[in-house]
Amino acid sequence: MAWENPSNDRLKEILETVKTIAVVGLSDNPERTSYQIAKIMQENGYRIIPVNPTVEEVLGEKAYPSLMDVPEEFDMINVFRRPEYLPEIAKEAAKTNARIFWAQQGIVNEEAYHYLKERDFTVVMDLCIKVVHAVLVK
User: Fold this and answer.
1) Is 66 a domain residue?
2) What does DSSP assign to residue 6?
């Protein structure tokens, strides 16, 4: 079976209830898409937790090397990594309390999708969180 994104109603519900987003692959370079999108989401009231082993801090928030190193709860995992890294990230995600996994536009990995769905995750792939937020959340 192929992957399938949640309905627009469910996406809207997610974006209206989520408060804290762990952003895997968040760069500290303002020219990078991950930085720009996380900054806009932060400006829209979301708490952003950077997850990237190569940076200390992004957008005024302490960065952590992996999801397992984040000492506080988060509601969603937003991923800015290439598709081949998703299965490994999915395995880490399954060890957290978050149950929403969002892979950015252009990122799809069916192995990770099925792994997460089997563990009761809501999985979004190949959609830009900023665009969905702008369209669905007024």
Assistant:
1) yes
2) P
Other C-beta atoms closer than 10 Å to the C-beta of 98 total: 21
pLDDT tens-place string over residues 55-79: 999 999 999 999 999 999 999 999 9
- CB atoms closer than 10 angstroms to residue 31: 7
Tally the domains of the chain: 1
**Tokens at 11, concatenated:** 């996406």
Distance CA(95)–CA(80), nearest Å, equals 19
Q: Tell me the HSE value of 100 on the side-chain side, using a 13 A CA sphere.
A: 22
CA distance 76 to 69: 15
Residue carrying structure tokens 């995992």: 77
Query: Tell me, what amino acid is at 76?
Result: M
pLDDT by residue for the chain (138 residues), tens digit each?
Answer: 689 999 999 999 999 999 999 999 999 999 999 999 999 999 999 999 999 999 999 999 999 999 999 999 999 999 999 999 999 999 999 999 999 999 999 999 999 999 999 999 999 999 999 999 999 997
Q: Domain of residue 113: give its range.
A: 8-136
How far is Cα 33 from Cα 137, in angstroms, rounded to an integer?
21
